Amino acid sequence: MQPNDVNPISDTIETDAKEPFHEPVSASSTSEEAEANKHQPLNRQCSLGGKHEASGDAGDAGHASEKPGAISQGQQEPAIDGPPDSGLTAWMTVVGGFCSMFVSFGWTNCMGIFIDYYQTHQLSNLSTSSITWVTSLMTFMMFFGGPFVGILFDNYGPRYIILGGTILHVLGIMMTSISTEYYQILLAQGICSPIGTSALFHASINSISTWFRQRRALALGIATSGASLGGVILPIMLTRLFNLLGFGWAMRICGFLILFLLIITNFTMKSRLVHRRKQFRLMDFIRPVGELPFILTTAGTFCFFWGMFLPFSFIPSQAERYGITPGRIIPTYLADLFGRFNLMILMTLLSGILVVALWLPSHGNAPAIVFSALYGFSSGTVVSLAPALVAQISEIREIGVRSGTYFFIVSFAALTGTPIAGALLPDPLHGSYTKLFIFCAVVMFAGCGFYSLAKVRMMGWGVWSKV
C-alpha cells in the first residue's frame, strides 16, 4: 500500500504501511458491508504529483475504519497486523511454495515428454489429439479445482489441503507407473494426480499471498520459479530414466522425489490468517464476475493460457530446457517497482512477438533453442504474475474465493488449448506447423489486449501510470 492510497469507501488515508490494522470481516457479516465492498476493487485510484498510481493491494486498505469486535460466530478472525513482508515464517512459506510448485506446475511442464513417449509406446494406436487430452487434463484439473480449494483454504487453512494433495499426487503417479491402457492413464495421470497438484498449487499461492503485500510479486515469483526448475529437471529425469529403466521405474523414482519435496512443504506451509469455518455463499464466487477489472484480467489470462502451453508441448524437450528459471524471479521484482499490470502487458506482448518472429520461421535446432530461451523468460513471468494480479484487485479476506474463481475460468483454456493444437497439427513429425503458430500468436496478442483494457479501466490512458 502506498502512503497516499485512498479508500473510496471510508475516505480514510493510510499514512503508515506498517501501522497495525485489522483484516476486514467476512462478506456475510452485514449486507451493507457486502454491498459496499462489492465494487471496492474497481474504483481504487489515487493521484500523486499529477500522475495516477494504482493501489498495490486492493485488499489491504481502509482498515482503520473497521471495527475489530464485529466478528460473529463462524466467521474468520482478523489478524492483528498486516502482512509483514518479511520474517522466518513468511520466507519458509515461500520455500514450501517453491517445493510445491516444483512438483505441481513443474510436473505439467513434462507434458511434451509424455506426448512423445505415448505416441511410440502405450498409446501408439491413438491420434495425437486423443493423447493430448491426458496432458490437457493435467493442467485443466490443476486450475479447475481453484474454487473448491479456495473454500477449504478460507475455512481451514492450508495444512490438510497440502496433506491431501500430497497423497493424491503421489498416488496418481504411482498408479500411472503400472498403467497400460488409455483409460487407466487418463484416470491416474489425468484426474487423480492433477487433483493433488490443484490442492498443492492453490494452497501455496493463497498462503504466500497472506504473508506479503509490498513484495508479493517477488515472493510469488520466487515460489513459482520452482515450477521452472521442475520443468527443467523433471523432463531430463524422465527422458533419461525412460531409456535406462523403462516407464514404470521412471515414474516411481519421480514419485519418490516428489514425495520428499512435499514432506518439506507439509512442514513449512502456513497461512498468516486465523481460519474458522463460515457459511458457504455461492455469490462469493459469482460476485467477482461482475467487476470489470476482474473480467478483463481473467480474459487476458484465459487467452494467454490458451496458447502458452503449446510451445512446451510441441517443441522438442531439449529446446525447452534452456533459460527458463530467471524469468520468474527477476521480472517479478521489477513488477513490484513499476507495476504488475504494466509488466504483464509487456511480457504477453513479447511472448506473442516471439512466436511470430522466431518460432514461426524457425527451422532446425538453433532457432528453436533461442526461441525457447526467450519464450521461457517471458511466459515464466506471466505465470508468476497471474496470481499477483488477482490478489491486487481482491480483498485479502477473499483471496481464496476470488483466486479460485479466476483459475476455474482459466482452467478451460488449459483444457482445450493443446487438443485444439493437436487438431491443427495431426502429425507433429511431418505436418505443417503454420496453423498452430497462428493460433498461438493470436490468442497471446488477445491476452495482451485484455490486460491493457484492464489497466485502462482502472487508471485511464496514462501509458506510464503504475498499476
From TrEMBL:
What's a GO cellular component annotated to this UniProt protein? membrane
Name assigned to this protein: Major facilitator superfamily (MFS) profile domain-containing protein
Q: How does it sit in the membrane?
A: Multi-pass membrane protein
Give the span(s) annotated as Disordered: 1-83
UniProt lists compositionally biased (Polar residues) regions at 1-12
**Do you know which CDD domains this protein is assigned to?**
MFS_MCT_SLC16
Per the record, the major location class is membrane
Family note? Belongs to the major facilitator superfamily. Monocarboxylate porter (TC 2.A.1.13) family.
Q: Which domain of life is it from?
A: Eukaryota
Q: Which GO terms describe its molecular function?
A: transmembrane transporter activity
InterPro entries in UniProt: MFS, MFS_trans_sf, Proton-linked_MCT
Q: List the PANTHER family hit by this protein, alphabetically.
A: MAJOR FACILITATOR SUPERFAMILY (MFS) PROFILE DOMAIN-CONTAINING PROTEIN-RELATED (PTHR11360:SF224), MONOCARBOXYLATE TRANSPORTER (PTHR11360)
Which Pfam families did the record assign? Answer: MFS_1
Where located? Membrane
Instruction: Work out whether the entry's keyword set contains Transport.
Output: yes
What transmembrane ranges does the database entry give? 94-118, 130-153, 160-179, 185-205, 217-237, 249-268, 289-309, 341-360, 372-393, 405-424, 436-454
Task: Enumerate the UniProt keywords alphabetically.
Answer: Membrane, Transmembrane, Transmembrane helix, Transport
